[in-house]
Write a structure and sequence with these properties.
- 21% of the residues lie in helices and 33% in strands.
- The chain has 421 residues and is an alpha/beta fold.
- It folds into 3 domains: 193 residues, FAD/NAD(P)-binding domain (3-Layer(bba) Sandwich); 133 residues, FAD/NAD(P)-binding domain, CATH 3.50.50.60; 82 residues, Immunoglobulin-like, CATH 2.60.40.
- The strands form 6 sheets. Strands 1, 2, 3, 4, 5, 6 and 17 form a 7-stranded mixed beta sheet that branches. The chain has a 5-stranded parallel beta sheet with strand order 8-15-9-10-11.
- It is globular and about 65 Å long.
- The termini are far apart.
- The relative contact order is 0.13.
Length: 421
Amino acid sequence: MSEIDKVRKDLVIIGGGPAGLAAGIAAREAGVEDLVILEREDEAGGILRQCIHNGFGLHRYGEELTGPEYAARDIAKAEELGLDVRCGTTVLSVDGEKRVTAVSKKDGLQVYEAGAVILAMGCRERPRGALGTPGTRCAGIYTAGAAQKFVNMEGLMPGRRVVILGSGDIGLIMARRMTLQGAKVLACVELMPYSSGLNRNIVQCLEDYGIPLYLSHTVTEVRGRERLEGVTVQQVDAARKPIPGTEINFDCDTLLLSVGLIPENELSQRMGVALSPVTSGAVVDDTLQTSVPGVFACGNVLHVHDLVDFVSDESFRAGKAAAAYLRGEKAEGLTVAVLDGDGVRGVVPQRLHPDGDVTLMFRPAGVVRNAAVTVKSGGRELARKRQMIFTPGEMVALTVKKEQLAGVTDDITVSLEVSGK
């Protein structure tokens, strides 16, 4: 490849959704002038562009915004700062030397030689093939996000009689959206004994419209040749196996899947970034730096968030950290591991330097009532946060202060402790 095809950039950000935009804004405000944001879609904003419901921005702005309104604010700020956002650009690979290979209609094939890289590729929905649900490959089965795009952006209705498998937030929101568009949502079916979505969405999207939620149930059969004609739902036992005799048959023409999100880490994996088997995202330290020096990760590509406000906050930190790295202010010295304890799943960051304030984020492993988050190291309790109820649908954040971390040299364990135990 000739030299003309190579472009030198101080910072390359992969992804122009809420994470990538926030990281770029923070990096520019921290003094990084030579940066580029690469976005594969034709417009910046990511998934927010199709999320026309409100509820975004309460933490960041103190007001309710729709997804497009939230994205528009970051897009406007990026334009104000003169950020180079290149849409319609697909990143093909990133190597361990931080060379980013991308292709677009406008620029063709280019290689960006970066001083630092921020991974902000977001996440994707788990498809039907990952579930192993028996039945025919008929039309009428969609992920909830695909149905959301059809309805909100293309003005198309996937169907009229709907069953939703999984109670993730997109699925809950689509239960309401399909109802408002005139469809009949027959049921929302959840494998686990608890919902994986926010409680406010259960109330506002199911209960307010009389849509039943079947916990500890799953779809065990899909019927139909050319078009979906119905599904069979069964209750499952503690081992998540269908219980004979509990079959419920629904005549429907549409099945929406809301069965989890997977961080888009194929690029990360190929460049040698260490991934967590729990979060499926990168293993990072408190600066959000991955195992590859100068490569940072933030947003849903790191761990799946429930609120975009938290994505933006995390991504601001990643942008500032990348700017510090480019200035030569690299975090050095002792790092300690952060481990999942009882009732805790997927703490981020997984390593930290115990010389500053650190925000730890995780999801509870199940529904836990009247408990407290504890942060301990070497037999010493560093921090504690009590809450009436913890659920997997809501991420928990706990800030541990610099003075609380003083003198820590052993691994840190984050746990949920139930009162009375």
